[in-house]
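Input.
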Amino acid sequence: MPFAQLKDRALISVSGPDAEHFLQNILTTDLDILAPGEAKPGALLTPQGKILFDFLISRAGENAFRLECRADISDDFVRRLTLYKLRAKVEIAKADQVLVTIAWGHESTPSQSDSKPITDTRFRSGAVTRCYGKTDERSDLAAWQAFRIAGGIAESGSDYQLGDAFPHDVLLDETGGVGFKKGCYVGQEVVSRMQHRGTARRRVLIASAEKPLPEPGTELTVAGRPVGALGSTVGTTGLAVARIDRVKAALDAGQSILAGDVPVTLAIPSWAKFSFPQEAVSAEEA
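Output.
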């Protein structure tokens, strides 16, 4: 079974008597349905509903949680959490030099891990587990990237920029990263409005081509008009965040969608519940 060791990740621990109440009131994830042994996605938003920090959150014992995030944003994340702490009885700390090991496929558990594996609930096809510690397994980062892309799972940095995306844009509403039945949290009003009105236009799509895709960040265009941008790529397959109304218009008109000068096909991840709009956007609206 394949494994990958991620050296660009960090762990932030939040513990104490008020830890769950504190996090439930500021993060998008509904901790009431976070079971032991699970890692769920989530975000800390701006008041305007844009993603400031993305992460995976899991329980680390009684009154304790671990938040796994990009290492390069971890210090800023700690500062932001501390800003919201006020008088809450919580301790916030970053663990140094943490190695995240991922296994996927059947029986996806590292055989010689330092820690107990937890299930990455973002993936619906094929088991994915994460361990926080070293293993003696061989790391295959390219295979992990390809698996993540095939699963339609976007991550900040490689697929979108923090401060530039709503949770719906990157499918947090469909991967369990947003609790629509929980109480208020930072940015909740905007996210709830998008959900109830069905106004999410940007979505993560899977891009494929007949030749290697250009680098991440390459603009997707139709007749010279932008419709989105590429994210992570491996060979001829990648992720894209694109306006599904503009993609629908291109499909209906039989127009080519280009990533740079490479024709691409854009598809909705097989597990996703959203669909292309029934009515395509007009040229004036685009």
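DSSP finds five helices and 15 strands in the chain.
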